[in-house]
Design brief:
- By secondary structure, the chain is α+β, with helices and mostly antiparallel strands.
- It is built from six helices and three strands.
- It folds into two domains: 2-78, Alpha-Beta Plaits; 86-128, no CATH class.
- The chain has helices at residues 11-23, 53-74, 86-93, 97-102, 105-109, 112-128, and strands at residues 2-5, 30-37, 42-48.
- Strand 2 and strand 3 (42-48) form a beta hairpin.
Protein backbone atom coordinates (compact mmCIF):
# COMPACT_ATOMS: atom_id res chain seq x y z
CA UNK A 1 0.00 0.00 0.00
CA UNK A 2 1.35 3.45 -0.91
CA UNK A 3 0.73 6.84 0.68
CA UNK A 4 1.77 10.16 -0.83
CA UNK A 5 2.63 12.66 1.90
CA UNK A 6 4.35 16.01 2.24
CA UNK A 7 8.01 16.14 3.27
CA UNK A 8 7.00 17.51 6.67
CA UNK A 9 5.38 14.26 7.84
CA UNK A 10 7.30 12.58 10.70
CA UNK A 11 8.03 9.22 9.06
CA UNK A 12 8.96 7.43 12.29
CA UNK A 13 5.65 8.40 13.92
CA UNK A 14 3.70 7.14 10.89
CA UNK A 15 5.73 3.92 11.07
CA UNK A 16 4.76 3.52 14.74
CA UNK A 17 1.09 4.18 13.95
CA UNK A 18 1.20 1.51 11.23
CA UNK A 19 2.65 -0.92 13.80
CA UNK A 20 -0.25 -0.13 16.17
CA UNK A 21 -2.85 -0.61 13.42
CA UNK A 22 -1.38 -3.86 12.11
CA UNK A 23 -0.60 -5.28 15.58
CA UNK A 24 -4.27 -6.17 16.10
CA UNK A 25 -4.26 -8.41 12.99
CA UNK A 26 -2.56 -11.74 12.31
CA UNK A 27 0.15 -10.01 10.25
CA UNK A 28 3.66 -11.43 10.41
CA UNK A 29 5.12 -8.62 8.29
CA UNK A 30 4.79 -4.91 8.97
CA UNK A 31 7.15 -2.25 7.66
CA UNK A 32 7.09 1.26 6.28
CA UNK A 33 9.71 2.70 3.91
CA UNK A 34 10.10 5.91 1.94
CA UNK A 35 10.32 4.40 -1.53
CA UNK A 36 10.16 7.48 -3.73
CA UNK A 37 10.09 11.24 -3.72
CA UNK A 38 8.79 13.73 -6.23
CA UNK A 39 8.85 17.49 -6.44
CA UNK A 40 5.59 17.50 -4.45
CA UNK A 41 5.64 14.57 -2.05
CA UNK A 42 7.28 11.52 -0.54
CA UNK A 43 5.90 8.07 -1.24
CA UNK A 44 5.56 5.78 1.76
CA UNK A 45 5.26 2.05 1.12
CA UNK A 46 3.47 0.11 3.84
CA UNK A 47 4.03 -3.65 3.80
CA UNK A 48 1.89 -6.06 5.79
CA UNK A 49 0.77 -9.65 5.47
CA UNK A 50 -2.30 -11.75 6.25
CA UNK A 51 -3.35 -15.39 6.05
CA UNK A 52 -4.97 -14.95 2.61
CA UNK A 53 -5.42 -12.37 -0.14
CA UNK A 54 -8.92 -11.35 0.99
CA UNK A 55 -7.76 -10.60 4.53
CA UNK A 56 -4.69 -8.82 3.16
CA UNK A 57 -6.86 -6.55 0.99
CA UNK A 58 -9.05 -5.73 4.00
CA UNK A 59 -5.98 -5.08 6.17
CA UNK A 60 -4.45 -2.73 3.58
CA UNK A 61 -7.73 -0.78 3.29
CA UNK A 62 -8.05 -0.57 7.08
CA UNK A 63 -4.43 0.54 7.50
CA UNK A 64 -4.77 3.15 4.73
CA UNK A 65 -7.91 4.60 6.31
CA UNK A 66 -6.37 4.68 9.79
CA UNK A 67 -3.10 6.25 8.60
CA UNK A 68 -4.89 8.92 6.58
CA UNK A 69 -7.12 9.72 9.58
CA UNK A 70 -4.02 9.86 11.82
CA UNK A 71 -2.26 12.27 9.46
CA UNK A 72 -5.40 14.42 9.05
CA UNK A 73 -5.83 14.66 12.81
CA UNK A 74 -2.21 15.09 13.92
CA UNK A 75 -0.32 16.45 10.88
CA UNK A 76 -2.84 18.11 8.51
CA UNK A 77 -0.05 20.26 7.06
CA UNK A 78 1.67 17.04 5.95
CA UNK A 79 -0.95 16.07 3.40
CA UNK A 80 0.24 16.56 -0.20
CA UNK A 81 -0.14 20.10 -1.49
CA UNK A 82 0.89 22.34 -4.35
CA UNK A 83 3.69 24.78 -3.62
CA UNK A 84 4.10 28.10 -5.34
CA UNK A 85 7.18 30.28 -5.39
CA UNK A 86 5.52 33.64 -4.71
CA UNK A 87 8.58 35.69 -5.70
CA UNK A 88 8.89 33.95 -9.05
CA UNK A 89 5.14 34.08 -9.70
CA UNK A 90 5.13 37.77 -8.76
CA UNK A 91 7.80 38.49 -11.37
CA UNK A 92 6.12 36.38 -14.07
CA UNK A 93 2.68 37.90 -13.59
CA UNK A 94 3.72 41.43 -12.59
CA UNK A 95 1.69 41.30 -9.37
CA UNK A 96 3.11 42.49 -6.02
CA UNK A 97 4.20 39.64 -3.73
CA UNK A 98 1.74 40.54 -0.95
CA UNK A 99 -1.19 40.46 -3.36
CA UNK A 100 0.04 37.24 -4.98
CA UNK A 101 0.40 35.57 -1.56
CA UNK A 102 -3.21 36.34 -0.69
CA UNK A 103 -4.67 35.13 -4.00
CA UNK A 104 -6.39 31.79 -4.42
CA UNK A 105 -5.38 29.45 -7.23
CA UNK A 106 -8.56 30.21 -9.25
CA UNK A 107 -7.79 33.93 -8.93
CA UNK A 108 -4.22 33.34 -10.18
CA UNK A 109 -5.62 31.51 -13.21
CA UNK A 110 -7.56 34.65 -14.12
CA UNK A 111 -4.43 36.79 -14.42
CA UNK A 112 -4.07 38.04 -18.02
CA UNK A 113 -0.72 36.34 -18.70
CA UNK A 114 -2.07 33.04 -17.38
CA UNK A 115 -5.07 33.17 -19.73
CA UNK A 116 -2.77 34.01 -22.65
CA UNK A 117 -0.41 31.13 -21.79
CA UNK A 118 -3.28 28.69 -21.41
CA UNK A 119 -4.72 29.75 -24.77
CA UNK A 120 -1.31 29.47 -26.44
CA UNK A 121 -0.71 26.03 -24.96
CA UNK A 122 -4.09 24.84 -26.21
CA UNK A 123 -3.34 26.16 -29.70
CA UNK A 124 0.13 24.56 -29.59
CA UNK A 125 -1.28 21.22 -28.49
CA UNK A 126 -3.93 21.34 -31.22
CA UNK A 127 -1.20 21.78 -33.85
CA UNK A 128 0.92 18.96 -32.45
CA UNK A 129 -1.83 16.33 -32.94
Amino acid sequence: MFLHVDYTVPVEEIRQELQRVVHSSDSKVCSLQVTNSTDRSMVLRCLMSSADSGKNFDLRCHARERLIAHIQKNYPESLPRVRTDIKKASLVFGVPEQRMASMSLPAMCCLPRTRARLSASRVGSAHSN
